[in-house]
């Protein structure tokens, strides 16, 4: 009797993750994984690791560009980073985060800017913040053939309106409004929802009541998937670390050690050593010296 050796599937052989993949994973009770990326090498590493989705988040304003909030980042900056991520990704679903004022002015402008993420930056979908007040924009973008991820709870682009980076949905009235908004965004055509910094039991209830997958960040384990800002996960952003972040590495400390070691090696003449140096043969050198006399 012959036996067939199963063929293992490496991350490079993975099928492209799509909106259908998201829906199927929710139906099967399989967790969806998502992280942020803003450059080619990070996106490549994530894709090889098998991440389901990469969000080119407007968080790049703070963790890459050094702004105090996400508000200053522009469409051109977002598209620039999205293109780099796209070049490093083969299988993961790519989501472009629509920056502040790229979709609030008018529905027409929202559709046009959403389209730029797909047409000019290689994204598969876009994400925008807000509930019922964004329903018309979501409908129009979806009607243009562009998949949309909604974002409820702590919405960083509304940081001044919210009075800071504060958890949301902690009162009965606020929780009721968030649940209603989730249904509204589902009806408007969102294929997924990010739930940020809301009570875990509320996030779990929303996840059970709507048919589209929820992606939690600071919203407990009851969501259909999870997302983190990669610079928080890697310990690269020193200004602050949200309570809901689990640090899997401390790259800031490792980088600091590498940089100080380099400075010390250069100043003490230990670098570059012989193994880091290009040489020529003695015959060639002697010929060169002779020609200079």
Please write out the topology.
Layout: H1 19-28, E1 32-36, H2 40-49, E2 53-56, H3 60-63, H4 75-87, E3 93-97, H5 107-119, E4 125-127, H6 135-143, E5 148-153, H7 159-162, H8 172-188, E6 192-196, H9 200-209, E7 214-217, E8 225-228, H10 230-233, H11 251-267, H12 282-292
Parallel strand pairs: 1-2, 1-8, 2-3, 3-4, 4-5, 5-6, 6-7, 7-8
Helix pairs in contact: 2-4, 5-6, 8-9
| Spatial strand sequence of the major β-sheet | 1-2-3-4-5-6-7-8
* Overall 3D shape: elongated
Q: Helix proportion of residues, in percent?
A: 40-55%
Mean pLDDT across every amino acid position = 94
Report Rg. 24 Å
H-E string:
HEHEHHEHEHEHHEHEEHHH
Task: Describe, in plain words, how this protein is organized in 3D.
- The chain is elongated.
- The chain contains twelve helices and eight strands.
- Mean pLDDT is 94; it is low at 1-11.
- Strands 1-2-3-4-5-6-7-8 form an eight-stranded parallel β-barrel, surrounded by seven helices.
- By secondary structure, the chain is α/β, with parallel strands linked by helices.
């Amino acid at each position: 009797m012959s036996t067939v050796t199963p063929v293992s599937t490496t991350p490079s052989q993975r099928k492209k993750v799509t909106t259908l993949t998201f829906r199927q994973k929710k139906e099967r009770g399989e967790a969806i994984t998502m992280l942020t990326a803003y450059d080619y090498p990070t996106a490549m590493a994530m894709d090889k690791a098998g991440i389901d989705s990469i969000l080119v988040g407007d968080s790049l304003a703070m963790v890459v560009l050094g702004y105090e909030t996400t508000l200053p980042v522009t469409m051109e900056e977002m598209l620039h980073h999205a293109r780099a991520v796209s070049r490093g990704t083969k299988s993961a679903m790519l989501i472009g985060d629509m920056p502040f004022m790229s979709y609030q002015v008018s529905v027409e402008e929202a559709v046009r800017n959403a389209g730029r993420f797909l047409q000019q930056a290689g994204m598969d979908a876009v994400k925008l913040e807000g509930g019922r007040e964004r329903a018309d924009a979501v409908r129009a973008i979806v009607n243009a053939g562009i998949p949309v991820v909604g974002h409820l709870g702590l919405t960083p682009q509304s940081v001044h309106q919210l009075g800071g980076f504060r958890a949301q949905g902690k009162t009965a009235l606020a929780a009721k409004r968030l649940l209603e908004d989730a249904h509204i965004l589902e009806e408007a055509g969102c294929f997924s929802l990010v739930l940020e910094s809301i009570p875990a039991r509320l996030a779990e209830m929303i996840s059970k009541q709507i048919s589209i997958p929820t992606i939690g960040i600071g919203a407990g384990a009851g969501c259909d998937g999870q997302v983190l800002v990669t610079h928080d996960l890697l310990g690269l952003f020193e200004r602050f670390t949200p309570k809901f972040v689990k640090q899997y590495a401390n790259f800031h400390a490792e980088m600091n050690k590498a940089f100080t070691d380099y400075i010390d090696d250069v100043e003490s003449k230990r670098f570059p050593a012989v193994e880091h140096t290009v040489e020529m043969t003695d015959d060639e050198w002697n010929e060169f010296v002779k020609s200079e006399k």
